[in-house]
């Protein structure tokens, strides 16, 4: 019996020694610091078994010889948070988002618009993923230029198409669409501690809850601030596009039309790690201007029974959008 107990003690000691030898202190410190950020800031911080998550993450990273080799373990930890939105951005990925489209040799995505039947202003709002300041302003100014040109034709109402917008950077979109939204607090965030704060739009500037400011060169407001608006959404409308749709919820004569959205109505914050990578961590849940808290998808006001035919579906969307504009309800 004593011999068996002695063997067990030796095995445990060997395991601990092996763990210590295979995980340098710098690697363990890196993993623990990342977990500490999650524990202190995650929207689900009060729902997680942190003792277990620390243990399983350190175990998963035990063979890592470099910081980069801990990424899979940290990504698993982020998945365990259960918010479906948090990500780890390696330094090169984050840097690419900051340098912008042009520096990467990519075409800058731009909104487009046209009149339908000379009565309805249609605007296609594509996703914008980057954070380079001049490109953000170019997108927002382009969106307002389109709105100004369409508004000159005295539209009966507005159709804003978010169906294929899967997210990215919300602020250029919000700044541009402020021409239709007007000024005020339209989209807010509830933290894990149930504190609610709102982004604001005022004098051609969007100020987010972190204090960030997004100016417009020549801010514009549509002539008929009470014009009806149809927002087109789908299951591909996700993340920041859901925030834009949410910003219109509660606006008079405005309806969301389509299908249940992509279920990423949460907001993320970036936390820099020691190797230059970033935790893109979900820290709050979307709140609309009426005070309703989300967290999953958005149910449209007008639900469409779609088919497998893209052309037919496009017709169904536009028909429903026009129907609302012709006979808007509060």
What report would you give on this structure?
The structure is a single chain. By secondary structure, the protein is α/β, with parallel strands linked by helices. It has 2 domains: 2-82, no CATH class; 95-326, 2-enoyl-CoA Hydratase, Chain A, domain 1 (Alpha-Beta Complex). Helix content is 38%, strand content 21%. The protein is built from 9 helices and 13 strands. It has helices at residues 2-22, 25-41, 50-60, 71-80, 91-99, 133-151, 171-181, 240-248, 310-326; strands spanning 87-89, 112-116, 120-124, 157-161, 184-191, 196-202, 205-207, 213-215, 229-233, 254-258, 266-272, 278-288, 302-303. The strands form 2 sheets. Strands 1, 5, 6, 7, 8, 11 and 12 form a 7-stranded antiparallel β-sheet that branches. Strands 2-3-4-9-10-13 form a 6-stranded mixed β-sheet, sandwiched between helices. Helix 3 (50-60) packs antiparallel against helix 4. It is elongated, with a radius of gyration of 24 Å. Residues 1-20 have low confidence and may be disordered.
Compose a concise summary of this entry:
The protein is α/β, with parallel strands linked by helices.
Indicate the multimeric state: single chain
Domains (count)? 2
Largest sheet: 7 strands, antiparallel
Q: Which secondary-structure class do the elements indicate?
A: alpha/beta
User: Which runs of at least 5 residues are low in confidence (pLDDT < 50)?
Assistant: 1-20
CATH architecture name of the largest domain: Alpha-Beta Complex
The CATH topology of the largest domain is 2-enoyl-CoA Hydratase, Chain A, domain 1
Q: Give the terminus-to-terminus CA distance.
A: 80 Å
Q: Give the helix level as a range of percent.
A: 25-40%
The overall average pLDDT, rounded, is 91
CATH domain class name of the largest domain: Alpha Beta
Strand content: 15-25%
Spatial extent as radius of gyration: 24 Å
SSE string, helix = H, strand = E?
HHHHEHEEHEHEEEEEHEEEEH
CATH superfamily of the largest domain: 2-enoyl-CoA Hydratase, Chain A, domain 1
Number of strands: 13
With helices defined by DSSP (H or I, 4 residues minimum), what is the helix count? Answer: 9
Q: What overall geometry do the principal axes of the alpha carbons give?
A: elongated
Signal peptide: 1-20
Domain Tail specific protease: 86-305
GO molecular function, one term: endopeptidase activity
Keywords: Signal
């Amino acid at each position: 019996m004593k011999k068996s107990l002695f063997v067990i003690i030796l095995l445990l000691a060997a395991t601990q020694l092996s763990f210590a030898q295979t995980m340098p202190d710098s690697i363990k410190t890196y993993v623990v610091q990342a977990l500490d950020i999650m524990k202190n800031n995650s929207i689900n911080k009060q729902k997680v078994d942190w003792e277990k998550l620390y243990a399983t993450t350190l175990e998963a990273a035990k063979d890592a010889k470099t910081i980069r080799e801990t990424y899979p373990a940290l990504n698993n930890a982020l998945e365990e948070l259960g918010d479906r939105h948090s990500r780890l951005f390696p330094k090169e990925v984050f840097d690419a988002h900051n340098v912008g489209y042009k520096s990467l040799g990519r075409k800058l995505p731009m909104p487009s618009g046209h009149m339908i039947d000379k009565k309805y202003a249609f605007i296609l709002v594509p996703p914008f993923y980057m954070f380079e300041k001049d490109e953000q302003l170019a997108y927002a100014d382009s969106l307002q230029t389109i709105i100004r040109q369409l508004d000159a034709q005295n539209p009966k109402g507005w159709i804003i198409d978010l169906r294929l917008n899967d997210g990215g950077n919300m602020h250029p979109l919000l700044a541009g669409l402020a021409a239709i939204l007007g000024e005020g607090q339209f989209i807010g965030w509830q933290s894990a501690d149930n504190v609610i704060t709102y982004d604001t739009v005022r004098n051609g500037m969007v100020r987010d809850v972190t204090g960030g400011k997004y100016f417009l060169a020549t801010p514009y407001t549509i002539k008929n601030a009470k014009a009806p608006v149809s927002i087109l959404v789908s299951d591909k409308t996700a993340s920041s596009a859901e925030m834009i749709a949410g910003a219109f919820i509660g606006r008079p004569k405005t309806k969301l039309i389509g299908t249940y959205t992509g279920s990423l109505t949460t907001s993320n914050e970036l936390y820099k790690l020691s190797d230059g990578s970033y935790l893109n961590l979900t820290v709050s849940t979307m709140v609309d201007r009426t005070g309703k808290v989300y967290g999953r998808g958005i149910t449209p006001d007008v639900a469409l029974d779609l088919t497998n035919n893209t052309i037919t579906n496009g017709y169904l969307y536009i028909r429903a959008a026009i129907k609302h504009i012709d006979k808007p309800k509060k």
